[in-house]
Amino acid sequence: MKTKNDFMRKAIELSIENIHNGGGPFGAVIVKDGEIIATGVNRVTASCDPTAHAEVSAIRAAASKLGSFNLSGCEIYTSCEPCPMCLGAIYWAHLDKIYYGNNKTDAKNIGFDDSFIYDELELKPENRKLPSKILLHNEAIKAFEEWRDKEDKIEY
Ligand SMILES: [Zn+2]
Q: How far is the CA of 73 from the centre of ligand 1 (A)?
């Protein structure tokens, strides 16, 4: 029977291996019923994909393997505390629990500082560094009205 420490050690092992494979020092595993069902590593620079964080990569692999967008019943073990994007993805995937090795401060100390995103989230959109403005709302809302009235939709 594998333990929580075994799963975290696997995530850590992936994070170290990934450095030697041209990626960032991040790894994650997703566990269901005591077994690893998917892994992910950071491939941002290797894949030219700014969203290819370890947790997002692991979520994509797990969802594909299970054939479901809902990963409830699964837990994620990640070598570092999730950034806001990954935390959002973890909520959307309905994972049950997060275990992390390094924390945000450890990441910041080696140049991976996501605190500015957390700071931005506290602000109103118009006060953020990233300009954000509503446009064509009365046209965009038509898709939402159609979705609201659609009877055979899959809710998620
Ligand atoms: Zn992330």
A: 21
Q: Which sequence positions are flagged as catalytic?
A: 55
Q: Distance from the CA of 133 to the center of ligand 1, in angstroms?
A: 25
In one-letter notation, the amino acid at residue 43 is R
Query: Model's pTM, two decimal places?
Result: 0.93
Nearest CA-CA partner of 102 in 33, 45, 55: 55
Query: What 8-state DSSP symbol labels residue 134?
Result: -
The string of pLDDT tens digits covering residues 72-120 is 999 999 999 999 999 999 999 999 999 999 999 999 999 998 888 989 9
Taking the centre of ligand 1 as the mean of its atom positions, its distance from the CA of residue 52, in whole angstroms, is 8
CA distance 36 to 32: 6
